Amino acid sequence: MAVRKARQTIQEFSLISGLQRRFARSESGLVRGIGDDAAVIAASPNTWWHLTTDLLAEGVHFDLRTASHESVGYRAAMANLSDIAAMGAVPRYLLMSLAIPKTVTSTHIYNLYAGLMKACRLHDVTLIGGDTSASKTGLFLSITLIGTTPARRALFRKGAHVGDRLYVTGTLGDSLAGLQLLTRGKTSRSTPRRSASLRTSHRHFLVNRHLHPTARLTEGQWLNAAQLATAAIDLSDGLSGDLRHICEESRVGAELHLSEIPISVPCRAYADLHRLQPVQLALTGGEDYELLFTVSPKNQLTVERQARARGYRITCIGTIRPRRFGLQMTSSDGTLRPLPMTSYEHFRK
After folding, report:
1. Residue ranges matching CATH 3.90.650.10 in the chain
2. Alpha-carbon distance 312 to 278, whole Å?
3. Which of 42, 138, 154, 342 has the most CB atoms around its CB within 10 Å?
């Protein structure tokens, strides 16, 4: 009797590591390959090129029932711009390829590109090409973005050292709260409190943070130029997962202080209304596109002083620990426990 083999479940990060081990190789001029927010190539003795690419699939990354084609294009550009921000680079050129189903019209595509270019024009990025194809299912976007830095000057996920302080820009959890508002609670089983509603201004803030996020390019370029960050990543999948990437690449552990995580007033109000823990929105929610970075203790006062002078909001949320410490979180009462993996991961049930 034939024995049916069990279907092997794909795990996103294990798959990426496997592909890296099997097929990646060192090349002359390749500074950084698989394993960071962008690949880095030494294009000349004085310039490094940073290349990043993203695939966005309808039904996975966006839902046209809750997002316009314009906002889909805008968010797609910002997702790639955020990768460049995490490297401390200046974005330059963009290519976009599309697979278009019959349900999408030319007007829809023009609106999508209008959103894309609205984001690109904020940072003087030039559209230089791409490709188009028919799709028998949904709408697919593939974006490649090229940025530059001076040679030997970039931020990487590796580089964090024991004792470094852990910082984030902005506030966390807003995008997930905005998404849940748009999907009318489909991503949350909670029910709102009776006789209560969210302020219109709070709802607008959260929804806009989801549909029109901000890539922290000026902050990334400042940290890189001033050589204040030892490691960096953008928060696209969620704090609990993206912190793991820094720790894995830097071969360190981390202690996260939950009470220090910056959460906006609208996000707190939304969490209270729906009986949620706001810190869980911050740990789980991706697509805030804030920067998570580490700073040497000797530069802590300098980075905070310069951030205030420039009007950047940064918050110290933890400390880098030895690798054997693992990833742990400290609650407001001082309790220390392992940090669960609650961020988004493709293929995970």
Report:
1. 165-338
2. 22
3. 154
What is residue 194's predicted lDDT score, i.e. its pLDDT? 47
Measure the CA–CA gap between 293 and 50, rounded to whole angstroms: 18
Residue among 343, 346, 143, 315 at smallest CA distance from 245: 343
State how far the Cα of 52 lies from the Cα of 238, in Å rounded to an integer. 19
Instruction: Name the CATH topology of 165-338.
Output: Phosphoribosyl-aminoimidazole Synthetase; Chain A, domain 2 (3.90.650)
Whether the per-residue pLDDT at 155 is higher than 90: the answer is: yes
Q: Are 242 and 293 in contact (CB under 8 A)?
A: no
Burial track 160-174 (b if 16+ CB lie within 10 A, e otherwise): beeebbbbbbbbbbb
Give the model's confidence band at 345: pLDDT under 50 very low, under 70 low, under 90 confident, else very high.
low
User: Cα separation of 88 and 91, whole Å?
Assistant: 10
Across all residues in the chain, what is the average pLDDT? 90
CA distance 239 to 220: 17
Q: 29-150 has which fold?
A: 60s Ribosomal Protein L30; Chain: A; (3.30.1330)
Residue in 114, 269, 94, 239 with CA at minimum distance from that of residue 178:
269
